[in-house]
Amino acid sequence: MLYYIFRFLNEFGISGSHLWGYISFRAILALILALVISSWFGEHFIKFLKRKQITETARDKSIDPFGEKKVGVPSMGGVIIIAAILIPVLLLGRLRNIYLILMVITTVWLGFLGGMDDYIKIFRHNKEGLKGRYKIVGQVSIGLIVGLVLWASPDVRANLNLGVEKAGSEMVVKHAEKSEKTLKTTIPFVKNHNLDYSEIMAVFGEYKTAAGWILFVIMTILVVTAVSNGANLNDGMDGMCAGNSAIIGVALGILAYVSSHMEYASYLNIMYIPGTQELVVFFCAFIGALIGFLWYNTYPAQVFMGDTGSLTIGGIIGVGAIIIHKELLLPILCGVFFVESLSVIIQVWYYKLGKRRGVKQRVFRRTPIHDNFRTLDSQLDPECKYLLKKPSSVVHESKITIRFWIVTILLAALTIITLKIR
């Protein structure tokens, strides 16, 4: 909104109005504004939640090995994050940009889905929340919408890598002069950095391009669903999900910026994607909102984000990565989310395997994996056989959280480095 106002004023030579044309100016302003909104609005919203006694029952009954009681801590704090993202983006972003529109739709869609889940948990006192099938339908639907829009929209184009030329003492990637729709995506540790979905579907012959787009849409659905569920599982300790997601947001913001810059894209040998610079504004607002939220969410938490926040955060990360053709880097970048999800899958599979044989067995003490490190021996089921009983002593959740942040920082750095490892 403000971008268009100041661009209009710039036509009349109004001093300072040209600054709004710089992506760096708007991105930094979005980060600051999101941080201020999250901090200021967060305080008032938490007071409102306390007055209305909006707390999550499941959290109230959780047992902490260090005796920390979380009874009465408000939930649905994800509303703070969503508001702190959308307001700066709507004020500072170019609202005609298709990528920004998709990010805003994803935020609102999954925010509503997570809000319904929290509403059922809190107001209907049902700790299971929204039924799993409805939650999956909601996640699949937004994935389908994003995939189809990226397929059909004429504004979604990229300048492909054509080859490498020598410029003085350096080798520079040459990009196509004309942007076009593409089914290629970036992969790590490979010389040309590109994987073509249509080539995967080459078995369909002359229909391989259409089949490739179908595969792309399916991939979009899988990525959005997997990452949003991974973020949801990661939201089990004070500050855990918000901190990890802010770090991931920094990496995606960097990747969006270099993808939108011809010279940087050439240097890194990745596709040049015009228009993705607006995602930098979005991810800066995303980072500012999460940092502001951490003011109240770090141990001991004054508010929980709930599914309103965690599902939205995961969806934003997944869709952002899809847009900049970096979805195949997510297993590295979101390694913590991936391991959290994998630990739950392994635990459930191993338990069901034993149940068929009449044996009560588990792999980990508790899952998701972060809970494994703070479970006392006295909390274990004496009738159950545990494959892994370590660690022998519990770790405080604030230490677990910070260590997970450190791991995510390393993974984020590794993700960016992979673009030069070939």
Fraction of residues in helices? 55-70%
The gyration radius over C-alpha positions equals: 23 Å
> Biggest sheet, strands in spatial order?
1-2
In this structure, how is the largest beta sheet organized?
2 strands, antiparallel
Helix count, per DSSP? Answer: 16
- Proportion of beta-strand residues: 5-15%
- Uncertain segments are none
**Computed structural class:** mainly alpha
Q: What would the average pLDDT be, to the nearest integer?
A: 89
Q: Please trace the helix and strand order, writing H or E for each element.
A: HHHHHHEEEEHHHHHHHHEHEH
Number of DSSP E strands: 6
General shape: globular
Kindly report how far apart the N and C termini lie: 42 Å
From the structure above, extract its key features.
two-stranded antiparallel ribbon; mainly alpha; globular; about 425 residues; two-stranded antiparallel sheet; 16 helices
What does this structure look like?
The protein is mainly alpha-helical and 422 residues long. It is built from 16 helices and six strands. The chain has helices spanning 2-10, 23-51, 57-60, 78-92, 98-123, 132-152, 197-200, 208-234, 240-259, 262-268, 277-297, 306-323, 330-333, 335-356, 369-372, 397-417, and strands at residues 161-167, 170-175, 184-186, 194-196, 361-362, 385-386. The strands form three sheets. It has a two-stranded antiparallel sheet with strand order 1-2. A two-stranded antiparallel ribbon has the order 3-4. Helix 15 (369-372) links the parallel strand 5 (361-362) and strand 6 (385-386). Helix 9 (240-259) packs parallel to helix 12 (306-323) and helix 9 packs parallel to helix 16. The longest helix has 29 residues, at 23-51. It starts with a helix and ends in a 5-residue tail after the last helix.
